[in-house]
Amino acid sequence: MKGFLVFMLAMLVVASFAFAGVNESYIDQVGTANVATVDQADGPNLSNITQGTVGPFNASTGGTATVNQSAANNDSEIDQKGWNNTADVDQSGDSNDSNIDQYGMGTAGSTATVDQNGDYDYSDIEQWNGPQAGNTATVTQGGDDGAEDYNHTSEIYQAGGLHTATVTQYGMDEESYVDQVGTGNTATVNQSGNSFNDSWVDQNGLNNTAEVDQIGNENDAHITQGVGADNNFGAIDQTDEAELNQAFIAQSGDGNETRIVQKDGANMATFNSMSDNNGTRDLITDGYTEGNIILQEGAGNTATVNQYAAMGAGNNTAWISQDDDDTAIVTQTGYGSDAYVNQQ
Fold first, then answer.
1. Does the pLDDT at position 162 exceed 60?
2. Is residue 156 included in any domain, yes or no?
């Protein structure tokens, strides 16, 4: 009998270790000015927070959700309804997952902030609000203790107006997707590391601004501003000592401005604009074997291509196609370079 009791005690100890660190938290709050805070360690951890209601007479306001998770394999889900809500997620360790959904019809926007440290992290933010609401989404993904790690993915979708999205990623093999529908949107993406980073920004509306900054080699950056979007600005900089990078900007609407800067070799950049008076398109490349393509439809456009080859390098190509009353300026240094300008 004594041996049996010792055996059962040992099994309980083993079971306690087996289930240690598997934490689950579920919070559901209805009303206004609710506050939910979750702190979880020794994962894997799961947190699920639901706050508020939305409607013409009973919309919730001022909800706050804060999640802090440490160790690996963390999962955070935040669903906020109403307006003027705040969601803050901080995850450390590898293989973290954060999902934030904010939906409301008020004039005050919501704020979502995600900070993830480690490898293989994923963040998804969706914000829906009225046309005058200024939602803000901020995502920072990087390695432990400031180290540069890899495989982070950030997705941000904002529907409404006056949005701001900021993404900062440290490491390699990073992916960022920003989709904004509305007016007055701003998207800023920062990626670093050695190589293989992707950034996609899609904006539909007026007065949009998109800027992408990448460091390293073999990176892709895409900016699309369209469906009647006016007064847009897009800039891609993939930066000093960058090689084998690709940049693409497509804009529709009047008064747009585009700038692509690539440095140090074998890069490819493409513009595509489809309206009148799109302002100035600047291409500045410094290196070898650059390929630049500019397509402009409408009148009053200006395209500028500067290709500066390194010592002993060349073989640059610039191709510009424009409609009436346009201006094309091409500057090339090095050897074996080609420039094609077609104006109709």
1. yes
2. yes
| Domain total in the chain | 1
Segment (H or E) for 17: helix 2-19
**String of b and e for 228-248 (b: at least 16 CB within 10 Å)?**
ebbbbbbbbbbbeebbebbbb
Q: What is the pLDDT of residues 239-254, one digit of tens each?
A: 766 677 888 988 887 7
Would you tell me how many other CB atoms lie within 10 Å of the CB of residue 324? 11
Q: In terms of pLDDT, which residue wins out, 175 or 313?
A: 175
* Alpha carbons 184 and 109: distance in angstroms, whole number: 14
Task: List, in sequence order, every residue forming a beta bridge with 269; answer none if it has no partner.
Answer: 247, 292
Range of the domain at 75: 24-343
Q: Quick one: tokens of 53?
A: 């209601």
Dihedral sign (CA 13, 19, 23, 27): negative
Q: Report the C-alpha gap between 189 and 209 in whole angstroms.
A: 11
Residue 89 has pLDDT above 90, yes or no: yes
Beta strands at 111-117 and 86-92: parallel, antiparallel or unpaired: parallel
In a domain, residue 7? The reply is no
Q: Is residue 19, in this structure, part of any structural domain at all?
A: no
Question: What's the average model confidence in pLDDT over 2-28?
Answer: 57
Q: Rounded to an integer, what distance in angstroms lies between the CA atom of residue 302 and that of residue 187?
A: 25
Cβ atoms 317, 309 nearer than 8 A = no
Residue range 249-294, pLDDT digits in tens? 888 877 778 888 877 666 777 877 766 555 566 666 665 546 676 6
Residue pair 290/264 in contact (Cβ under 8 Å)? The answer is no
Residue 123 included in any domain: yes
**Residue the block writes with tokens 């790690």:** 149
Report pTM.
0.84
pLDDT for residue 12 is more than 60? no
Contacts of 311 (CB under 8 A, 6+ apart): none
